[in-house]
Design goal:
about 0% helix; mainly beta; 7-stranded mixed sheet; 4-stranded antiparallel sheet
Length: about 120
């Protein structure tokens, strides 16, 4: 089992920045690809970004490309999502997720952290 815990959410004005962190405990963190997803009120959960287990490749949703940066520090069992130029439409609960590198689906999820961007 892998336990995940997000932090860093909050209220920010449009154009501002936040950095989300997700710290893992349990099994070998470096065996897991990590991702961020978000869910806005009344909408389905959507993919935001992901990073491979050794951090050599990242991917982003088109809606956040150029504004969000994902990185991981395997020594600290932590993945970071730097969010810049935030927009009101970025308002959502953000979830960290872990996927064992041999698996297809994300099996481990954090409880989520709220990000609210005011206009």
């Amino acid at each position: 089992q892998v336990q995940l815990r997000e932090s860093g959410g909050g209220l920010v004005q449009a154009g501002g920045s936040l950095r989300l962190s997700c710290t893992a405990s349990g099994r070998t963190y470096s065996d897991y690809a990590m991702g961020w997803f978000r869910q806005a009120p009344g909408k389905e959960r959507e993919f935001v970004s992901s990073v491979t287990r050794i951090g050599d490749y990242t991917s982003y949703a088109d809606s956040v490309k150029g504004r969000f940066t994902l990185s991981r520090d395997n020594a600290k069992n932590t993945v970071y999502l730097q969010m810049n130029s935030l927009k009101p439409e970025d308002t959502a609960v953000y979830y960290c997720a872990g996927r064992y590198y041999r698996d297809y689906d994300y099996a481990y999820w954090g409880p989520g952290t709220q990000v609210t961007v005011s206009s």
